Amino acid sequence: MPQPTTIRIFDTTLRDGEQSPGATLNIREKIDIAHQLETLGVDVIEAGFPITSVGDFESVRAIGQELATATVAGLARCVPRDIDRAGEALHGAANPRIHVFCATSKVHREHKLNKAIEQIIELSVESVKRACGMVQDVEFSPEDASRTELSYLVDITGAVVDAGATTVNIPDTVGYAVPEEYGHIFAYLREKLPVLDEKSIYLSAHCHNDLGLAVANSLAAIRNGARQIECTINGIGERAGNAALEEIVMALRTRGDFFDRYRTGIKTERIYPISRMVSTMTGLRVQRNKAIVGENAFAHEAGIHQDGVLKERSTYEIMNPCDIGLPANKLVLGKHSGRHALRDRAQALGFRLDDGQLKKAFESFKALADKKKDIYDEDIEAILDQQLQTGRQLWELVRFQVTSGTNMIATATVVLSDASGEQQMDAATGDGPIDAVYSAIQRITGVQVTLEDYESRAITAGKDAQGEASVAVRHNDRKVRGRGLSTDVVEAAVRAYLAAINRIKSSQGQWPTTDTPDHPPVEPQAETAEVEPKAASG
Ligand code: KIV
Ligand code: ZN
Asked: What was the pLDDT predicted at 509?
């Protein structure tokens, strides 16, 4: 019997995942997710791209300092300044890794980098050597590897391994590959470069989901020698996302008969709580029918199926919901639950609260329990998320009143209190109630923004459900998001808008909050250019 091979799980939720359009995480949220990833049993956590913003730098630094067992990686282009910044962010981390990348495909070489094959190899080798001078663990990614000539991939892989890279990642950057072809790249590299096995170099798979093949491609890579898989919780990421961690892990586990030799160190019963946490904090909802963690993943609607499951679960269920940590009973707390019960539940859901935060969260919980009989995990997550999102605020909502209806102009009166506690009131009309309250808020705060996106949803079912609103506003060149929560939908919208305005104020240095100041980064000219990248690579 061959010995089982352990597959390293490299989670990039906080880097590639956070690049999802619409995702926003503050530093506190990133740290909490990183702790949960460590508890989940992830081997490597890519915590950010330090050169891109002060926020990313600080997140990588804080996560590196806090985590004891997982490796913490920071991304860098093949630019000395990028690598130095990543090294600086990882200084003092227990297990630091610098992840260097440079595009290699013809289309990237000719249109993006304007560099010849030899120049790219030279640059990559120099960059890996520079990173090796700072940390022992260096990963190299030839970006768009799946569209790169195989012979060139062999050359660059050999060169960066000679330079000291211990992991070589083969990204399917644009989600173009199909499983047989992607798997073949791994087999080919291992055949042509015996040094990979001799030196125990980790080949890694990094798949995007543009054709819905990210997980299939990752599994094909494993069967052809990949020993590290790069993935994200809920499959979030650029465009159609990255390979979903939970799907890969559960495929290996559920089909142990087929994937006999492969194991991961993931504690699968922690999958559901972290999926919920990432969804709540990023604001990226999990689609209902998403494999493993979607709301319908274990729901049986058809009578024949329900009957079958009642007689024998395995008739229609290939996994046990307990194995992914799906709670059997979702009703958790009520009006009479105390502070300890809330703290215990918060911990079980993966939130770490200090005493001050627990106190505030408990006040929100009690206020909610007065309005709503049954409090579900989703309600608690929303309260805690709100708590972590907002922290100390410049403007707080005191009260508002709005009148609207058919054939009338909506009118709103809003009272806010500022940092000194002084209350300010203003009124405005608008095209509907939300427009009217938002105009009144702009008049009070003096912050002029354009509303770009507004979304509202019920957190749980029922008449008394809490509503969550999320908004995206544009302020000068910046898009800023905010989320708000209330059993009243208009109030949730007001709170979301105020959260975004407070973020803008805090990044202008007008008020300290738990948010990282979000310095708007600069557009990249090319991966090797001496400018700060605006959008990190996918
Ligand atoms: O998709 C990609 O190519 C990436 C690299 C930076 C690894 O995310
Ligand atoms: Zn990517």
From this structure: 53
Q: Are residues 438 and 354 in the same domain?
A: no
Domain endpoint, select from 325, 355, 388: 388
Q: How many domains, the chain?
A: 3
CA of 535 to the centre of ligand 2 (A): 12
How confident is the model at residue 385, as a pLDDT? 80
Nearest ligand by distance to the CA of 145: 1
3-state helix, strand, coil in the chain (%, to 5): 45, 20, 35
Q: Side chain identity at 80, as an amino acid letter?
A: P
**Looking at the structure, do residues 434 and 376 belong to the same domain, yes or no?**
no
DSSP code of residue 440: H
CATH label of the domain that carries residue 472: 3.30.160.270
Ligand 1 pocket, residue 16 CB under 6 Å: yes
Cα–ligand 1 centroid distance for 212 (angstroms): 17
- Per-residue pLDDT tens digits for 194-244: 999 999 999 999 999 999 999 999 999 999 999 999 999 999 999 999 999
Q: Is the pLDDT of residue 458 over 90?
A: no
One domain, residues 132 and 261:
yes
Token pair in block for residue 338: 């105390």
Cβ of 210 closer than 6 Å to ligand 1, yes or no, is no
Shared domain check, 102 and 64: yes
Residue 230 and residue 150 in one domain: yes
State whether 63 and 174 are in the same domain.
yes
**Atom in ligand 1 nearest the alpha carbon of residue 75:** 6
> Is 442 part of any domain?
yes
Nearby residues of 16 by Cβ (< 8 Å), 6 or more positions away: 46, 230, 232, 237, 238, 242, 536, 538
Phi, psi of 495 (to 5 degrees): -65, -40
- Let me know: does 229 contact 251? Beta carbons within 8 Å: no
Q: What percent of the chain has pLDDT over 70?
A: 92
Q: What is the mean pLDDT of residues 269-296?
A: 92
Q: Which domain holds residue 346?
A: 338-388
Best mutation site among 141, 160, 238, 528 for ligand 1 pocket (most ligand atoms within 8 Å of CB): 141
Spatial contact of 63 and 36, defined as CB atoms under 8 Å apart: no
Does the pLDDT value for residue 526 go beyond 50?
A: no
Q: Kindly state whether residues 444 and 384 are assigned to the same domain.
A: no
Based on the fold, state whether residues 359 and 234 are members of the same structural domain: no
Q: From CA 412, how far away is CA 435, in angstroms rounded?
A: 9
Quote the DSSP letter at residue 109: I
Identify whether 487 is part of a domain.
yes
- Mention every residue, 6+ apart, whose C-beta is less than 8 A from residue 313: 320
pLDDT of residue 335: 83
From CA 380, how far away is CA 350, in angstroms rounded?
A: 11
3-state secondary structure of 149: coil
Residues 496, 535, 279, CA angle at the centre, nearest 5°? 40
Asked whether residue 189 is assigned to any structural domain, the reply reads yes
Has residue 517 been placed in a domain?
Answer: no
